[in-house]
Design goal:
The complex is a heterodimer. Chain A contains six helices and six strands, in the order H-E-H-E-H-E-E-H-H-E-E-H. Chain A has helices at about 1-30, 35-45, 60-65, 95-115, 120-125, 145-155, and strands spanning about 30-35, 55, 70-75, 85-90, 130-135, 135-140. In chain A, helix 4 packs antiparallel against helix 5. Chain B has helices at about 5-20, 25-45, 45-65, 70-105, 120-135, 145-155, 165-175, 180-215, 220-250, 270-275, 280-290, 300-315, 320-345, 350-370, 375-385, 395-400, 405-415, 415-430, 430-450; one strand at about 115. Classes of the chains: A alpha+beta, B mainly alpha.
Chain lengths: ~160, ~450
């Protein structure tokens, strides 16, 4: 009986150690600072190349991406032939993150299809679009300054 | 993977059911465990490790209770098990919220690396807690089989959004359960009804609410329409998911507890909470409210107990102050009803009771649905005329006209009329009932193929 108790104590300790190691690993691998979207938006709009783009509301995000993330900032121009945009979303869980990622991928491929054949500049910009996810955040940028925006975004969320 | 996805409905579920039904009884739990872990790993490939470690820890904690009769040791073990479970939940769900609150209260600037929330952690933590607490109390036997215990925590129908099944409710079914055609048939019917609630009603009500919420200007009536849509969206979303979980449970031979009982038919807030998310209320009653003394204490202590439970209920729903406010809002309302209003209300005509409950509950959902306090304040002000563009406008008539069928269907589905009708048809002519379910299923599939708006609101909890 005593041996059994000892074994159980060792097993319990090992599992607890496993949990601690798991938490350390996950924190170092996939994390981001907790920065509200409003703060990100304020900092990002100071970036070059965003001054002629307009803030879009939930209805616009819905019509472009087919989803409305829990938190987001979305900027684009009103011109039909202008494909530049900046979309940053914060997901409330892995499932929402998956939905945002696939919606963004679908949107970009749809845009490429739409401009292929008559908008080579637009297609080039779309093909060089920058997207990434870090922690709860998803980032998508299309435009000449896309990489610069991405760098600024990474600096913000750590 | 969500229940209302084509992958789940046409690949995962049929394959799992076929294998599960074909294998002998002794292998059924192994099949169910593998399928459930795969189901979870589809959306959470990393957090599946956390869930498995959590299961292992609680399994060993149970064995510790069986290994000793020493009261002190058992109590220490219980405290450890409860602490580890709550710390894990707190770390992943509330740490960022706590740091944010401390930062804004004291002007600190603690940097917190936010992690994504493991899906279903609130549900499976509560299930694990029900096991360790009941094993400590001696209410249930310690589960010796790791497979059976892992099946209890991971069962895919209720893993990520409930209902919260306590161990005592399912203890006997884990070892052996009956699967027959009648039960499977009832399960399929329940699954389809739940799917229809989710896909046909909740998703479309959600679109309507999003559209109203995004409007720059709203009249009073439009704002109320939006709030009603939000309330019904949350109801059909969550109760639809619960129906699907209960239905799939039946197909696998399980009997899960009911989670909703037509809450919008309630004539008081007290009654509403006897009908809404019943498994969560039951959990808090058994593991928090009763241990605190419940209602068999002085009025002051009862008020304290009620507020503690409702503070925790709010917090359980999300790491945000609007959820805490929502919980306390109901706590205060329930106290007022118990000590003052209910006695008076019971003498009033029933339409007055229904209207009071409806208004109060709809306001509650506005608190629940808005994490942004500025937006919430603006929306609430609009509901009572503040900043609204008049009492009624063209937008209201446009929304009602274009969504009339949806709104009527939703309102009727809040009552037991459809269920009673289907039961009646089923008793008279089972083929007709099968036909209705098939038609509903095809309509759902059509919505899934052509629609893109398909979130599950309760996944975030």
């Amino acid at each position: 009986m005593q041996k059994k108790k000892q074994k159980l104590n060792i097993a319990e300790g090992a599992v607890l150690l496993g949990i601690v190691i798991f938490i350390i690993c996950i924190m170092s691998a996939n994390s981001s600072a907790d920065v509200p979207i409003s703060v990100i938006e304020q900092k990002m709009t100071e970036q070059e190349g965003l001054s002629d783009m307009f803030r879009q509301d939930a209805a616009s995000v819905k019509s472009v991406y087919g989803i409305v993330p829990s938190e987001f900032m979305y900027y684009k121009t009103d011109a039909v032939m202008d494909v530049r945009e900046l979309f940053i979303a914060r997901a409330s869980g892995a499932d929402e993150m998956d939905a945002i990622e696939s919606a963004a991928a679908e949107h970009i491929s749809g845009q490429i299809d739409a401009f292929t054949g008559y908008g080579p500049d637009q297609v080039a910009l779309l093909e060089h679009s920058v997207s990434m996810k870090k922690g709860d955040y998803f980032f998508l940028a299309v435009g000449d300054h896309a990489e610069q925006w991405q760098e600024a975004f990474i600096k913000l969320i750590g | 993977m969500v229940f209302s996805s084509l992958n789940f409905l046409f690949i995962f579920l049929p394959v799992t059911l076929a294998v599960y039904l074909l294998v002998p009884q002794r292998l059924k739990n192994i099949v169910l465990l593998i399928a459930s872990v795969y189901f979870y790993a589809w959306g959470e490939p990393v957090y599946v490790v956390l869930m498995l470690l959590n299961i292992l820890f609680n399994y060993v904690a149970g064995l510790q209770f069986a290994a000793t009769k020493n009261k002190r040791r058992r109590k220490k073990q219980l405290i450890l098990a409860v602490l580890v479970n709550l710390l894990l939940l707190g770390f992943f769900k509330y740490a960022g919220f706590l740091v944010g609150t401390l930062n804004s209260l004291f002007g600190w600037s603690i940097v917190w690396k936010e992690l994504s929330l493991p899906i279903g952690i609130s549900f499976y933590t509560f299930q694990a807690l029900s096991y360790v607490i009941d094993a400590y109390r001696g209410k249930v036997k310690v589960q010796k089989s790791f497979i059976n215990f892992a099946v209890y925590i991971t069962m895919f129908p209720q893993l990520i959004a409930g209902p919260i099944v306590t161990y005592s409710e399912i203890e006997n079914q884990l070892g052996r359960r009956t699967i027959n055609i009648a039960k499977a048939g009832a399960g399929i019917e329940r699954l389809i009804l739940g799917l229809a609630k989710k896909v046909i009603l909740a998703n479309n009500l959600g679109l309507l609410y999003t559209s109203i919420q995004a409007s720059a200007e709203r009249s009073v009536m439009t704002t109320w329409l939006g709030a009603v849509c939000l309330a019904m969206q949350i109801y059909f979303d969550f109760s639809g998911y619960s129906d699907m979980a209960i239905g799939m449970g039946k197909m696998l031979g399980f009997d899960f507890p009911e989670n909703f009982n037509f809450p919008f038919m309630a004539d008081s807030v007290t009654e509403f909470w006897r009908r809404w998310h019943m498994t969560l209320s039951g959990w808090f009653k058994d593991y928090v409210y009763f241990p605190l003394g419940g209602s068999r204490v002085s009025a002051l202590k009862h008020i304290r107990n009620t507020l503690i439970v409702w503070f925790l209920t709010g917090l359980w729903h999300g790491a945000s102050w609007n959820f805490v406010m929502w919980g306390l809002y109901y706590g205060v309302l329930l106290i007022i009803e118990k000590y003052i209003v209910l006695r008076v209300m019971k003498r009033l005509p029933s339409p007055v009771q229904y209207i009071y409950t409806f208004v109060v509950v709809i306001l509650g959902f506005v608190l629940f649905g808005n994490t942004d306090f500025t937006e919430m304040g603006k929306y609430m002000a609009n509901m009572f005329g503040g900043g609204a563009s008049g009492f009624i406008d063209g937008a209201f008539l446009y929304y009602v006209k274009n969504n009339l069928i949806l709104l009527i269907l939703s309102a009727v589905s809040c009552s037991p009329i459809f269920r009673k009708l289907l039961n009646k048809i089923s008793r008279k002519n089972s083929y007709a009932a099968i036909g209705i379910c098939l038609v509903l299923f095809f309509i759902c599939v059509a919505f899934l193929v052509y629609g893109s708006y398909n979130p599950f609101l309760y996944f975030r909890f």
